[in-house]
Amino acid sequence: MVSRPFVMALAPLLACSFGLAQSETSLVDLTRQTAPAAHELTTEARGDILMARKMYREAIDAFQSDPQKSAVIENKIGIAYHQLQQLDQARKSYERAMKLKPDYAEAINNLGTVYYAKKSYRRATSQYLKALRLNPNNPASIYSNLGTAYFARKKYEEATTAYAKALSLDPDVFERRSSYGTLLEDRNVAERAKFHYYLAKMYAKAGRNELALQNLRKALEEGFKERKKLNEDPEFDAMRSMPEFQELLTVEPRVL
């Protein structure tokens, strides 16, 4: 049995660690709503705590014992399986969540991340686009996922458009570590050098020069070969007089 003060003290930590989407009930509200007179946690809240502790197998057991079997619970079970890299089980859970709630954008997005992990990039793209159509708030993380799927398909123009939209919705979307909450984000891009170069261009266009320089360094360190673009792409016009940018131009290319 856990006291309510203890649960409330844990709430900020769990909200940060588990990363619940804004469309879901916050953990603070959850503790207020679900802590009865006996001060007992619900099975869902217990599962949330286990997820925050990265005890994914135990979290699955807790969620599966929940009598409601709601779309939210099935989605959380899917996330736990996903963390364990049991992608087929995760896919089944996301599909059950979508069956219970056909317009559940979070589960649809998460199913897209399973397809992405399986290198089925076209299917992943389709799921992300569907999630965006169903979610009026259009979370930056889904646009980020969409851009990554386009990038993996070498559709760089579409990827740049999606990434730019994600950046406009959340200026820190690419700097924040994925916390695997209600939404899953997948940024495992094979062409890391080119990925960081495109991010550098977007940050430069937005006037965020420090982040642009950081991503240019990463691109060069990872073997970006089209170095002449640094002197050609208009996004870097305002940065070319910077000593840090000039220094990057003299860095020896990495031998792969």
Shape: elongated
**Distance between the first and last residues' Cα:** 57 Å
CATH homologous superfamily name of the largest domain? Tetratricopeptide repeat domain
Q: Catalogue the unreliable spans.
A: 1-38
CATH class of the largest domain: Mainly Alpha
Given the structure, what is the number of helices? Answer: 13
**Protein structure class:** mainly alpha
Which range best describes the helical content: under 10%, 10-25%, 25-40%, 40-55%, 55-70% or over 70%? 55-70%
Tell me, rounded to a whole number, the average pLDDT: 82
At CATH's second level, what is the architecture of the largest domain?
Alpha Horseshoe
Number of strands: 0
| Residue share in β-strands | under 5%
Radius of gyration of CA atoms, rounded to a whole number? 21 Å
Do you know the CATH topology of the largest domain?
Serine Threonine Protein Phosphatase 5, Tetratricopeptide repeat
Q: Mind summarizing the main beta sheet?
A: none
The sequence of SSEs as H and E is: HHHHHHHHHHHHH
**Integer tally of domains:** 2
List the helices and strands and how they pair.
Blueprint: H1 4-18, H2 27-34, H3 43-52, H4 56-64, H5 71-83, H6 87-100, H7 105-117, H8 121-134, H9 140-152, H10 156-169, H11 192-205, H12 209-221, H13 243-249
Helix pairs in contact: 1-2, 1-3, 3-4, 4-5, 5-6, 5-7, 6-7, 7-8, 8-9, 9-10, 11-12
